[in-house]
Amino acid sequence: MTAQRLLRALAEVMDSHDWEALPGLLHEEFSCHYVHTGETFSAHAWVRLNAEYPGFQRFILEDCVADGDRAVGRFHVTALGQDGLQHFEVASFITVRDELLVSMTEVWTDVNEVAPAGTRPE
Predict the structure, then answer these.
(1) Count of CB atoms within 10 A of residue 3's CB?
(2) Of 52, 61, 58, 77, residue with least CA distance to 16
(3) 27-50 pLDDT per residue, tens
(4) The domain defined by 3-110 carries CATH number 3.90.78.10
(5) Are 49 and 64 spatial neighbours (Cβ–Cβ below 8 Å)?
(6) For residues 64-84, b (16+ Cβ closer than 10 Å) or e, as one string?
(7) CA-to-CA separations, 121 to 6, 111, 115, 116, 118, in angstroms, rounded
(8) Phi and psi of 46, rounded to 5°?
(9) What is the residue extent of each domain of the chain?
């Protein structure tokens, strides 16, 4: 599977909450690194994290750029929290080996963050 197809398949599996199918997309040496927290997850830990994430709703692929065995996707993610629906944006950078996802680096941000005063262009 190409990197672009694999990223699209990942989006479909995640969005449909098909946790049984998710490990089938991951290489035995898979790891996922979260830049924003410094955490790194094995395949098993990453699948469990996603399956057990409280209130997880949607994982929508908004954009995808791919070249060879690498791809990057921009996703819009929603989850139900104590204050209602939360919105996040995530950039996922993947590498494919043997037609499976072998490494992923993700950068998450809360959509509701406000830029510091004085940083907005006029």
Answers:
(1) 22
(2) 58
(3) 999 999 999 999 999 999 999 999
(4) no
(5) no
(6) bebeeeebbbebebbeeeeee
(7) 38, 19, 11, 12, 8
(8) -70, -40
(9) 3-110
